[in-house]
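quick one before i forget lol
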Amino acid sequence: MLKRIKSGLNKRKVKIFLLFLICSGLAWFISKLSDSYTSRTTFDLVYTNVPDSLLLTNASKKYVDVKLKASGFQFLWFNFKNKKVKIDVSAMEYRGASYFVPQNVYTKQIDRQVGSMTLLDIDKDTLFFRFSEVYNKKVPVISSATIELVQNYLLQGGVLLQPDSITVRGPKNEIDTIKEVQTLKMVLPEIASDFSKNISLYKPAALKNTTFSENTVRISGKVFLFSEKEIKVPVTVVNLPEGTQVKTFPSTVTILCKAQRDALKDLKASDFELIADYASVKDNGNNTMGLQLRKKPKTVFSTRLLEIEVEFILTRE
């Protein structure tokens, strides 16, 4: 029993000792963090407020070395932050053929951004910039999406893109190469109803300094279930020689039409114009003429001639 009591007291003493040790260490650490220190560090430079008419293609410095004075608490927090400072390019000067921001100007900008820390020293270099003139150009957007429709479904009016054109902005040597902008390749499978989806635009790697007014567009389409109907349409021969008559075999040709069911109900032969052009006949003893569907209703989305040519007999009046 006495051994257990002594063992318990010893464990308690160890715990109390460790607690006091941790507290004293923490107090020492906090005391040290309250002291002031000096340290050198490096800031990445982020250039802002570039004039709209210019494109920044190169800067003489991407980072700057500085010497700071601050408390340990400030340095501790500072080391967890992303070490970037902004340089306002609108403060630049122009002399000869050079754009630049003097050291004293960007020093003040950085000093304002380090807050309560004291900026003791900084690189003495002037910041020089190289710009290109910016050009704008409006180009069409082309869909690279594949629409896989369920059997017996059709697109009404084709695929729509919103917007259907964008403005590209960049240096002349890049802008001149752009005729159109394509979307990324995408497959929309088993489509049996109206659809609408955002799709990203493809930007070639060669367009390093070019920006797009839009990075995505909306692709959409109306889908309907179609029906089929066969309709017989008379053949009309055009460009006959003067003083001749012609008879075709057959005199009517069947056209297979695909459209919405309601549109097919009122379909008539007079809604179509099917021609055979005598001027296309060659003097080779072959008495046939090819057929061409010159007119069809807008409500009919697909047509197929069941005969692609007709035979004929030409007679003089």
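fyi The first strand starts at residue 36 and ends at 48.
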